[in-house]
Design goal:
- By secondary structure, this protein is mostly beta strands.
- It is built from two helices and 17 strands.
Length: about 200
């Protein structure tokens, strides 16, 4: 059993329909980034603050994180804190789609902040960093060379309909060492514990 992630095996997800909705949107709309030079980070925001399109622009796309940028041993903050609990409205582009259906289902299972499609191009890697919260990953399109590393543990998340709660409060990164793109639906998980089919799903540290 891992110290850093938990598999959620009972999610009711139509993975084929989710991928089809994503691909249709990607073809028509593309993706967003707060810095076009950062080719390792591509995102499509699924929810936002009610009536506030600016909440899915600029640094809000990535959000606050901490990293060790050099050999000084000094941790540095990047970007500003995002008010995750205020992200409660599906983006208008996804109204009436399966993505909205899935979003509403997930909000019944978990207390969510931002929800995004996160894409990793082939042969790319994130920085070594930590985030304020845990995350729910739902792998959609992946390959055997796509792996997450948390502290000293490396693991692959297959696209089989399961969810993965990852402890992003620990230092981690994600790399796609394959030759095809990787796409996950990723949601910020907020405390407290949430009811899960009559039981408690612990997302606390």
């Amino acid at each position: 059993m891992s110290k850093y992630y938990q598999v959620v095996e009972d999610l009711e997800i139509n993975l084929e329909e989710l991928i089809a909705c994503y691909e249709e949107f990607r073809e028509s709309k593309g993706f967003s980034t707060d810095n076009p030079d950062n080719i390792d980070f591509n995102a499509i925001c699924i929810n936002r603050k009610p009536g506030d399109p600016k909440s899915i622009s600029g640094g809000n796309i990535r959000g606050i994180y901490w990293t060790y940028p050099d050999n000084s041993g000094k941790e540095e903050q990047r970007l500003e804190e995002v008010e995750e609990q205020q992200y409660t409205q599906i983006c208008p582009e996804f109204k009436g789609t399966y993505i909205e259906t899935l979003y509403e289902y997930l909000t019944l299972r978990f207390k969510l902040g931002r929800v995004r499609f996160l894409m990793k191009p082939p042969r790319s890697c994130l920085s070594w960093h930590r985030d304020p919260e845990k995350r729910l990953h739902i792998p959609m399109i992946t390959n055997g060379g796509s792996r997450m590393v948390i502290e000293d543990e490396s693991f692959h998340m297959p696209a089989n309909g399961n969810g993965y709660i990852t402890d992003n409060t620990k230092y981690h990164n994600f790399f796609n060492g394959g030759e095809t793109s990787r796409v996950h639906l990723v949601a910020t998980l907020l405390p407290p514990k949430e009811v899960n089919n009559g039981g408690l799903l612990n997302i606390d540290n």
